[in-house]
TrEMBL record:
Pfam families associated with the record: TetR_N
DNA-binding interval(s): 32-51
Name listed for the protein in its UniProt record: Helix-turn-helix domain-containing protein
Keywords from the UniProt entry: DNA-binding
KW DNA-binding (keyword) present: yes
UniProt key word DNA-binding: yes
Gene3D superfamilies to which the protein is assigned, alphabetical: Homeodomain-like (1.10.10.60), Tetracycline Repressor, domain 2 (1.10.357.10)
PANTHER family assigned: HTH-TYPE TRANSCRIPTIONAL REGULATOR PKSA, HTH-TYPE TRANSCRIPTIONAL REGULATOR RUTR
Length: 198
């Protein structure tokens, strides 16, 4: 990559981060494209060149988060390959991702409803794939099916994706917060899944 291309890429990432911070601070619906462009240091026309609408920008931010969530499952697979349980590794990966991308979690939780029906449907499929992969990883022999399986995946995903933000906002030391999250989740999840396996 040339120096100019690297600079353009870093400028774009910096502008995306600024846009995300503005959305998180004010709320997606309260930010106009003109305000967004001024906040990230672009003209409105230049911003439209990158994103046809602010919905497209929000969609990209949330989709990127969902792809990162899918990648957290790799940590569980690596733990299994080393002969260790997957769930503690998955919990730690979610904790770290939340520390790195807290604003994106906030946007995904609060502003998903601002996307078009088509965008929401596409993200719902990505989220379902993540939840199914999560269950397959931590409870490969579950006897749950149908609505119970779907509800379990949704609940497990919600706990993993919301608990870090709540705990990280309580003034706990990093390692203390992670240990508390593991303590809260491991017992309850493992017991629930143990009762639902063959």
């Amino acid at each position: 990559m040339s120096a100019n291309a690297a600079l353009r890429c870093s400028n774009f990432d910096e502008r995306r981060d600024k846009a995300m911070a503005l959305f998180a601070a004010k709320g997606f619906g309260q930010v106009s494209m003109r305000e967004l462009a001024a906040h990230v240091g672009l003209t409105a026309g230049s911003l439209y060149h990158h994103f046809p609408s602010k919905q497209d920008l929000l969609y990209d931010l949330i989709e990127e988060l969902y792809e990162e969530l899918q990648a957290t499952l790799d940590q569980g697979r690596k733990a299994l390959a080393r002969g260790k349980p997957a769930l503690p590794a998955v919990i730690a990966a979610h904790w770290q991702l939340h520390a790195e991308r807290g604003l994106q979690f906030r946007l995904a939780e609060r502003d998903l409803c601002c996307l078009s029906d088509e965008q929401q449907a596409r993200l719902a499929l990505v989220r379902l794939r993540y939840q199914a992969g999560l269950l397959k990883l931590v409870a490969p022999q579950t006897r749950l099916s149908g609505p119970a399986l779907t509800a379990t995946g949704q609940a497990l995903g919600a706990l993993l994706n919301q608990l870090p933000g709540w705990l990280q906002g309580r003034g706990l030391a990093e390692d203390e917060g992670l240990r508390l999250m593991q303590s809260l989740l491991l017992g309850g999840i493992e017991r629930t899944l143990k009762d639902a396996v063959i």
